[in-house]
Amino acid sequence: MTNKLNNSKQYPLVSIITPAYNRADLIEKTILSVLDQSYTNIEYIVIDDGSKDNTLEIIKKHEDKLLLLTQENIGETKTVNKGLKMAKGEIIGIINSDDPLLPDAVTTVVDEFMNNPDIIVLYPDWQMIDSEGNIIKYIRTFDYNYENMLRWQHCVPGPGTFFKRSVVDELKGRDDNFTYVADFDFWLRAGLLGRFKRIPKIIATFRVHPGSASVSSKGLAIAKERIKLINKTYSSPYLPPHLQRLKRESFSSAYYIAGCLTGSSHPLFKISYFLKAFFYCPHKYFAEYKKRLIVIMWQILDLFLRPKK
């Protein structure tokens, strides 16, 4: 499966979903990266979520090669769920409008699924790129371990992740009560269903550009969602006892991340999150998480030393 493949019953249909909102400057590169894949048995669904620029016009240039849906703006989570309902593939991937795939990405994924039939989610290594597509650095992801994903509160599956249809059938899509962490919630729930596997190969990209730098302006909202997510995770009746035992450490990580995400304009929230992070699991901050303790100290010190406006 290293050469250009034709549609065949021998190879599964792969559905790729791209939600798009105001990405006129970048979306064509992503569309072409999917259309030019070496694996051709692909159903490509692109949903324009009420863009105000000429994103839709650019998508329509390729309308004969993809399934296009247009709608009033409803947000990424609900848009992705629409795509999941439309998808007919045995294998599904969600590719952001600014994160193009590398040419053999889908071929690699299909190979891995066919060689590992018990795997339900595959995720690769990836490269971070700038707005011009220049490589900033290569990211080698963690080999999968659900316990670590939970206790670190680190979303291991990243760009280029694909999953089997059975995952969608079971989970019914992303939780639209979340705006910023619906993908992580999805992986936390999926991890209770079956095995994930890392592909030790760079086949995807994550683009860093001004339009993606939303954390600074929405940091507190994202931080609050991280706390909402950890509360939801540990209120689930499906979380087995050996994972329930990680509760204090998981909450500590969630509060630490929330503190890091909260900007300097919300000092009381930041300090509160950091203090809760420490007191949920203090012994860890003098061992495995001692670097976190340094970060906490520097960020709190910065709040007091920063010139008052």
Architecture overview:
Helix 1 (27-35) links the parallel strand 1 and strand 2. The chain folds into two domains: 14-212, Spore Coat Polysaccharide Biosynthesis Protein SpsA, Chain A (Alpha-Beta Complex); 215-305, no CATH class. It is an alpha/beta fold and 309 residues long. Residues 1-9 have low confidence and may be disordered. It has helices at residues 27-35, 55-60, 76-86, 105-115, 146-152, 165-171, 182-190, 215-235, 241-244, 247-261, 267-280, 290-305; strands at residues 14-20, 42-49, 67-71, 91-94, 119-129, 135-139, 162-164, 195-207. 42% of the residues lie in helices and 18% in strands. Strands 1, 2, 3, 4, 5, 6, 7 and 8 form an eight-stranded mixed β-sheet that branches. It contains twelve helices and eight strands.
Number of strands: 8
Helix % is: 40-55%
Give me the number of helical elements. 12
CATH class of the largest domain: Alpha Beta
Q: Catalogue the unreliable spans.
A: 1-9
What fraction of the residues are assigned to beta strands by DSSP?
15-25%
Shape: globular
CATH topology type of the largest domain: Spore Coat Polysaccharide Biosynthesis Protein SpsA, Chain A
* SS content category: alpha/beta
Total domains, how many?
2
Radius of gyration: 20 Å
